[in-house]
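Try this one yourself first.
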């Protein structure tokens, strides 16, 4: 079972025609202020990703060393923590550090931008 070829061709032709004519109907010019906000949002996101990656790398090393030492020294850990458990402990710490740091960085950057916008609006009025 499938779509009959006539129907499929009709839909394909309709979609092609709409896409060719669509550029005239959806012509929107964003304001310069909106462009600036979009650029600031992208910059904040990139800054958050960089900070999160750094924090994840530090957390990976910081959680790997005690985990591997514990597995070799502590009898309970030696008996109960296999390779999968060790990997889960290390990756959970890294993932948590990444998302927490990225979120805090993005929010702090957005807060800075909001204060900057308030200052500009106060000067204009």
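Now uncover the answer:
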């Amino acid at each position: 079972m499938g779509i009959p070829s006539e129907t499929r061709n009709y839909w394909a032709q309709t979609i092609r025609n709409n896409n060719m004519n669509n550029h005239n109907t959806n012509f929107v010019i964003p304001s310069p202020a909106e462009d600036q906000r979009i650029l600031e949002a992208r910059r904040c996101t990139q800054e958050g990703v960089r900070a999160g990656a750094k924090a994840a790398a530090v957390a990976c090393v910081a959680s790997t060393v005690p985990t591997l030492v514990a597995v070799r020294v502590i009898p309970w850990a030696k008996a109960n923590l296999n390779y999968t458990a060790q990997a889960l402990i290390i990756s959970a710490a890294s993932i948590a550090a990444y998302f927490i740091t990225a979120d805090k960085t993005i929010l702090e950057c957005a807060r800075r931008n909001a204060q900057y916008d308030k200052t500009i609006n106060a000067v204009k009025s």
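Discussion: The mean pLDDT is 84. The chain has one domain: 35-123.
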